[in-house]
Give the backbone structure.
Amino acid sequence: MTIKKIATILLLIFALTGCKEQSGSNKVQVKRPVINKVLTAKVRRMRVPIFYETVGTVKANATVTIAARIMGVVTKVMCKEGEVIKAGQLLVSIDNRQFRQQRAAAAAALGEARQGLATADQHRKLAKLTYQRYKKLFDEKAISGQEIAEIKTKMQVAGLQHKMAAKAVTQAKAGLAQARIVLGFASIHAPVSGVIVKKMVEEGSMAAPGQPLLTIDKNGPFHIDVKVDENRAKLLRKNMPVGVEIPAQEKRLTGVITTIVKAVDPRSRALLVKIRIKAHDLSSGLFARIYVPNGSRQSLVVPLTAIVHRGQLTGVYEVDAQGVVTYRLIRTGRTSAAGVEVLSGLKENERVIVKGTNRAVDGGILQMEKRS
């Protein structure tokens, strides 16, 4: 297309536009969408709480590390990381053939000891009866004192042998009990109910006494470990309620300060604070934000129901004196029982839609309005 043709087309467009503007000498009436059945309220200036914000980490109230107590090859691992387990559940098996043999040997030793005790008991009874018969003869002057002394000594020796045999039975019982305990160490059961958070053993690996195998987060309430700057320590007190936010799970909770460790970390210049929360469906390691009350201030506030999100934008539907609705972008602060703090974008006494925002349209006009 030549430059001359392009110029001709542009002149025609300008001419038509000019004719249209000239023909519309009267003011054009804009037809706006009608909005009804909504509730509006004025933007109020109210006293809202101020918070000192810090961050922390969610942790289980109890973390249990399971370690091996015997040496042997791991034959089976019956759990995986992230698995929910119950107390008493079998988790790991170690080759127990050697320990079964030790238990069998201990059981045989106990049998021999019991047989020895039965024999010693028979000898003791016989020696006692013999002594009683010879004692009568001695009383009748039928035997000498030396003879009765020899019989008495044999009876005493039989009694000592019986005691030694009884002691051997006790030792053999202890040996069998120990062998059974050691054999039990080959089957590792969960000491508590919870979640496997770390697995450090695989089938075929060698387990050794004291070697960690599994880490379990015990079921129950969680707490949050928080490092608080030493200059903010004066804001804290035990049993103080604080706000807690878990962004990953979009949770807002109320926690209670249970522990304030007074020792300050010389590297971070912060002290450790533990906050108890009642939620049970969390996971160790989650990021948490903590809001510690720190007085209050006057600020503009709108109800939470007035906030309308459009992608990454945050705004409200503002209504002017003629009832025209405009989507107004705002910058918000903290949310509290009073409402959502408005940092910019609105003025006091401006009216916004607080109920029925799903019916509102930018540029619309209210037909039926309820005010609060």
Q: What stands out?
A: The chain has four domains: 34-48+299-371, 53-60+219-296, 63-95+187-218, 97-184. The first helix runs from residue 3 to 23.
